[in-house]
Design goal:
The complex is a heterodimer. Chain A is α/β, with parallel strands linked by helices. Chain A has five helices and five strands. Classes of the chains: A alpha/beta, B mainly alpha. Chain B: It comes from Cryobacterium cheniae. Chain B: This is Ribonucleoside-diphosphate reductase subunit beta.
């Protein structure tokens, strides 16, 4: 069972964070020609924002497509954002937008592909988060 | 001193309807959406605030900004341009021309700040200081040397370290002033520059990693050694430059943390693990908040401080809701 769903562009930074996390995870496909991802278990979404500035275009269109599936949307339990504080107001903006839209917590933010501390906090945090879930 | 600039030997008409690397389009769109000019920032609203700075703080500000002007001039005139012949796709070449132009906008925007806040004499003196400061000149020399070398991957490393690390001894100051509600319009302009540099560092770092994918293990080891050696060389110089500027203001230690924090992210842009441990990257929260309003809040849901989070019921969402 994958309790993480994530998007990572071809730059692969978020993918690298997920690899370091070592938890089962499902990747939202990059290309429209790929089979869309549909989930059947609750999950936490990990989503990057690269370069923002305003709301427009902050959420990757692949993630929009994934969340427009009603079943997928109903199973989201939290968001983790990735980015770079040097993007200013755009830092982890996609995570903010999704958290607000889906009314789930924006649990954590990390930069680029995360430091070892980030990995540890998220790994342990998700472990106890899922234990507390009904 | 400068060898004849290498140009691409062959050019085909660029076709934006046939894309080899989606990242080129994504970054082009991001950069053009982020486009700005200094004339749009009401810098003159900082005139009163400028008058409240001590003469030493004013001098520091002018010197910091001439240092940043030098780096942006290098990046616009040499750095980004030197990457064009190494580009793998025609769209990558186009992105570099955008980056080069934007660096020239950055370099010019410091002059907008100068002419708004300072006298011609003060400005000229600050520029003279920039040509005479040994550590600033050395920083420029190190980078220029690598841009003129013949290794495309090493050029990208030099470029990312410039974009994502070397600017930050300078960027610290307007963030520091901004955290004290001083020169806030200047800080707005600098934040636009920081945002651009972050996209540049991300993109050039991505192209670097793409280039490295095709390399042998031996070559990868060589490039990694080179990257960390260059980082150390620049870092040592950067510490001295920081001391030249900030010692008399008692800010050097605070600036160093900001340097470590950004050095780590420069390395990560290149795909390498962070070098500086957490104990020396604990940037003053006020500086982080000035950089990004989101960076300051406690978003660590996992530490137990997330008790204030209210988890509501998910709402129906349509394509149109996402403002995409």
């Amino acid at each position: 069972m994958a309790d993480i769903v994530y998007f990572s562009s071809t730059s692969g930074n978020t993918h690298r964070f997920i690899e370091k996390l070592g938890r089962p995870a499902a990747r939202i496909p990059i290309y429209a020609r790929d089979e869309p991802l549909q989930v059947s278990e609750p999950y936490v979404l990990v989503v990057p924002t690269y370069g923002g500035g305003d709301n427009k275009g902050a959420v990757p269109k692949q993630v929009i497509k994934f969340l427009n599936d009603e079943q997928n949307r109903s199973l989201i339990r939290g968001v983790i954002g990735a980015g770079n504080t040097n993007f200013g107001t755009g830092y982890c903006l996609a995570g903010d937008i999704i958290a607000k839209k889906c009314k789930v917590p924006h649990m954590f933010r990390f930069e680029v592909f995360g430091t070892p501390d980030d990995v540890r906090i998220v790994h342990d945090g998700l472990e106890s988060f899922w234990k507390q879930q009904p | 001193m400068i060898d004849k600039l290498k140009l691409v030997s062959h050019v085909d008409a660029i076709n934006w309807n046939r894309i080899e690397d989606e990242k080129d389009v994504e970054v082009w769109n991001r950069l053009t959406n982020n486009f700005w000019l200094p004339e749009k920032v009401p810098l003159s609203n900082d005139v009163q605030s400028w008058a409240t700075l001590t003469p030493a703080e004013q001098l520091l500000t002018l010197r910091v900004f001439t240092g940043l002007t030098l780096l942006d001039t290098i990046q616009g005139t040499v750095g980004a341009v030197s990457l064009i012949p190494d580009a793998i796709t025609p769209h990558e070449e186009a992105v570099y021309t955008n980056i080069a132009f934007m660096e020239s906008v950055h370099a010019k925007s410091y002059s907008s700040i100068f002419s708004t806040l300072a006298s011609t004499k003060e400005i000229d003196e600050a520029f003279r200081w920039s040509t005479e400061n040994v550590n600033l000149q050395r920083k420029a020399e190190i980078i220029m040397k690598y841009y003129q070398g013949d290794d495309p991957l090493k050029r990208k490393v030099a470029s990312v370290l410039l974009e994502s690390f070397l600017f930050y001894s300078g960027f610290y100051l307007p963030m520091y002033f901004s955290s004290r509600a001083r020169l806030t319009n200047t800080a707005d302009l600098i934040r636009l520059i920081i945002r651009d540099e972050a996209v540049h560092g991300y993109y050039i770092g991505y192209k670097f990693q793409k280039g490295l994918e095709a390399a042998s293990q031996e070559r990868r080891d060589e490039i990694k050694d080179y990257t960390f050696n260059l980082m150390f060389e620049l870092y040592e110089n950067e510490i001295q430059y920081t001391q030249d500027l900030y010692d008399e203001h008692g800010l050097t230690e605070d600036v160093k943390k900001f340097l470590h924090y950004n050095a780590n992210k420069a390395l990560m842009n290149l795909g390498y693990e962070a070098m500086f441990p957490k104990t020396v990257t604990d940037v003053n929260p006020a500086i982080l908040a000035a950089l990004s309003p989101n960076a300051d809040e406690n978003h660590d849901f996992f530490s137990g401080s997330g008790s204030s989070y209210v988890i509501g019921k998910a709402v129906n969402t349509e394509d149109a809701d996402w403002d995409f």
